[in-house]
Amino acid sequence: MSKWLGAMAAGVLAAVGIGAGAAQQPAQAAELIILTNQGAVPGVRELGNAFSAQSGHKITVLQETGAALERRINEGPADLVTLNPGPMDELVKKGRVVPATVTPFVLAGLGLSVRAGAPKPDISTVEAYKATLIAAKSIGYSYGCSGTHIAEGIEKLGLTEQLKAKTIRTTGGPVTDYLAKGDFEIGIQQTNIMVGVAGTDFVASLPGFVNIPCPSSVALMTVSKEPEAARAMIKFMISPEAAPLLRKTHVEPAKP
C-alpha cells in the first residue's frame, strides 16, 4: 500500500496545482458533484461541508451505483470521483478521469460490530479475534476492498475453510444493515461506516496485522464543467486542515 501511495504522490502536486493552505475564495461560486465509494462517504461529506463553508462552492456528494453511476461517469454531471485503487485504475484506462490528478487522500481501517444489546466479544489481540471468529455462529462481510482485506486476514489466520460454511457475503448497502436485521451474529467492515449505526453496537477496530486498511483516492473527472473548483477541492482534501476532519469520521489521512 505504501508503495502505491508513494508512486501516486510523485506527480500529483504539480498536476493538480496543490500547495499548502486552504482553497481561496472564488470569484464565482461553482456547484461541484462528487461521486464517492461507500467507504469514503462519511469523510467526503465532512470535507465537502468544510470546503463549501470556506470557499462558497456548493458541494453535492452522491453514492451512485449500477447504471446511474455509469451515466454519471460517462456523461456527467460530475466533477470528482473517489474510489479504491483498482476501480480508479480502470477509470484512468478508460479516460474517464485526468490521470495526473489521481490523489490518495484517506485510509479506512476495519472494525467489528454486533447486534444492539448483544454481548461484545473480545478482539483486543489477534489471538482473541481468531477465537471470536471460531466461536461465532455466523459472520458477515462484504465484497469490494474491505471484504477482500477481511478475507486476506482470515486466510492469514488459517481459517478460510473452517469459516466458509458460516460466512455470509453481503451485496448492496453497508454490512450493518444486514447485521441489524439479524442476518448474522457479527459483522466486519470499515470502521468509519460501522460506528454509531442504529440496531448495532460497534465493538472495536480489528487488531494487528488483520486490520488491513482500505485506501481511497480522489480524481478530477474528464466530464467536469468546473475543473478549477474541483482542483481546489482536491487541494483541500489533502491539506493539513483536512486531517482532523477525516479523523472525526474514524479514518486516517493518506500519507504521501
Account of the protein in words:
It is a single chain. With 256 residues, the chain is α/β, with parallel strands linked by helices. It folds into two domains: 2-107 and 215-253, Periplasmic binding protein-like II (D-Maltodextrin-Binding Protein, domain 2, 3-Layer(aba) Sandwich); 110-210, Periplasmic binding protein-like II (D-Maltodextrin-Binding Protein, domain 2, 3-Layer(aba) Sandwich). The protein has eleven helices and eleven strands. Strand 1, helix 3 (41-55) and strand 2 form a beta-alpha-beta unit. Helix 3 crosses helix 11.
Structural category is alpha/beta
Mean pLDDT: 90
Report strand %: 15-25%
Using DSSP, what is the number of strands? Answer: 11
Tell me the number of helical segments per DSSP (H or I, 4 or more residues long): 11
CATH third-tier fold name of the largest domain: D-Maltodextrin-Binding Protein, domain 2
Name the CATH architecture of the largest domain.
3-Layer(aba) Sandwich
- Whole-number total of structural domains: 2
Approximate shape: elongated
Q: Can you list the strand order of the major beta sheet?
A: 2-1-3-10-4-11
The radius of gyration computed from the alpha-carbon positions, rounded to a whole number of angstroms, is: 19 Å
Poorly predicted tracts of residues: 1-26
Oligomer: single chain
Distance between the termini: 11 Å
